[in-house]
Amino acid sequence: MTGSRRPRSHVDDLRGAGRLAVEATRGVTALVEAMHATIASGPAILGQPLAGPARIATGLVYGTVRGVTGLVGVGVDRALAQLAPLLGASAPGFERDAILAALNGVLGDYLLETSNPLAIEMGLRHAGEPRGKLLVLVHGSSMSDRQWTQGGHDHGAALARDLGYTPIYLHYNSGLHISTNGRAFADQLEGLVAAWPVPIDDLVLLGHSMGGMVARSACHAGADHAWRRHLRTLITVGSPHHGAPLERGGNVIDLLLSVSRYSAPLARLGKIRSAGVTELRQGNVVDEHWHGRDRFEHRPDDRSPLALPAGVRCYAIAGTLSAEPAPRLRSDGLVPVDSALGAHPTPALTLEFPQEHRSIVYGTGHLQLLGSAAVYELLRTWLSRPGSSPTPEHDVDRSP
Prior knowledge:
- The structure is a single chain.
- By secondary structure, this protein is of the alpha/beta class.
- It has 11 helices and 11 strands.
- It has helices at 10-40, 51-87, 94-113, 155-163, 178-195, 210-221, 245-257, 267-270, 275-279, 337-340, 373-384; strands at residues 8-9, 89-90, 123-126, 133-138, 149-150, 153-154, 166-171, 202-208, 231-237, 313-319, 358-361.
- The strands form 3 sheets. It has a 7-stranded mixed beta sheet with strand order 3-7-4-8-9-10-11, sandwiched between helices. Strands 1-2 form a two-stranded antiparallel ribbon. It has a two-stranded antiparallel ribbon with strand order 5-6.
- The longest helix has 37 residues, at 51-87.
């Protein structure tokens, strides 16, 4: 556990970006080569009579491009390495963190696999003096720990002020599998509790978007850990427990592109997106939901059920762009209301948030949930009167 994140080197950023650019060039080269070879091979109905000559011609041309790109990449990497002592380290900045977070959200698994310096290393950042009440905030996909501040408001800082919590912010690579981050988060919490300088009376996990799923996964992975004995409350805000339409749409596009051999090479572009992004298609939170499967395969929701953590008060907040209650509520722009509240057509997959622990905030988009006064009032009420009935769904303040 650390009070601040390890400073990063400017040269690491430049080297990582340069390497990524080289690898992207290679990827696009391979894509164009595949399309060129497919078209030049001739009609499939005639047995692609020109396939052999086409492979020879395209192999020579595109092989040369890849070779030159590789040499340039090595040169850039070596040059940047020599500049490292001169550039030194830089403290994290909001804009830079936001760019890195977005990059990791889309390509984070690839960055880690290739040891790219741009890959985010998981860590905890705490603000204020250590107290016995810990609030751990887990950000969403393609975001950073500093983006809990929206419109000048931070739920963590406000709960520290009003209820005496010490806010602790998790920063992680959201491009990895949720279960991978869940295990790492569980280990981080174990270290946090072991090193905390004062007795712990209360531990709360607050997750926005993917963060709520990472928190659920950590509860599963850390079931036998010491920190679980301190965990009292889990709150998810706009979390796609059962997936989000945007990723399901991307999966359908992959399927459509693969129908024709001429468009099939383009399907590779859709498969650039990270494991973390594809987890959001159905809401995978444990290894069994994805291990041994093609994550780009179009398949029904056949996940095994994972119940909410036992012995923990669990709450769920959903946002909706609808201004008032209606038979069919709009999503918050990204996550459907039912998904955020844990509801599922298959009863076994439904998350059993008690009715009085579920709330809908009207007229509020996905990111607006972070700065919403209505959301904060729910958080403050639930955490100041544990066990009491919160505001029912139909009475929630609709102001963003």
